[in-house]
Amino acid sequence: MNDSSPTSRADFVVFRTMPTRWMDNDVYGHVNNVVYYSWFDTAVNGYLLETTGTDIRRLPALGVVAETGCRYLRSVSFPDLLDIGIAVEKLGRSSIVYRLGVFTAGEESAAALGRFVHVYVDAATRRSTAVPQVIRDAVTPLLREFR
Asked: Can you give the pTM of this predicted structure?
């Protein structure tokens, strides 16, 4: 992620509400870094399940995570209620690059910024394959240009 990464709510297309949990906090009093990756996975796959109306786990092509990243801008902690912003940076033949923003309720600037890459593979052979049309249709409205 570079300095032109999205940082405000306006940079994202849809939002998924995500509560923090008591167990998310670490000994330093904030949400541990590994939890953010769970939020990204839950937000993206929840969006896909809801938007497509399809059990994406049953498609002939599966989106596997090939890359994730996170830049932490400020701490969040339990009991914060979060909004996870989702946008798509790139929709390729067999991959999707998502941008995610972690926002505390009422805040306009992100507490963290994420990158999440799905690569689609054939469910049986695990070889690279095209993004299924139902997924492509669901993520196309999320496309945004990032520099």
From this structure: 0.92
